[in-house]
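ok trying this again, last paste got cut off
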Amino acid sequence: MRINDAANYLSISEVSIRRAVQHGYLPHVRFGRSVRIALTDLDAFATAHRVTGGESR
């Protein structure tokens, strides 16, 4: 999926997705200037950043 699709899927900003991609936190495939993110990688990224119980940031 594209950056904007990934942002909509997680209900976060495109900037947050771009930062995660840029810093290597979110696996992706690059075709020239285009970035694509697999749904499985996006789900794994969301799960890894899940806050449970009394954790708060």
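PB: full thing came through this time. The two ends are 28 Å apart (CA to CA).
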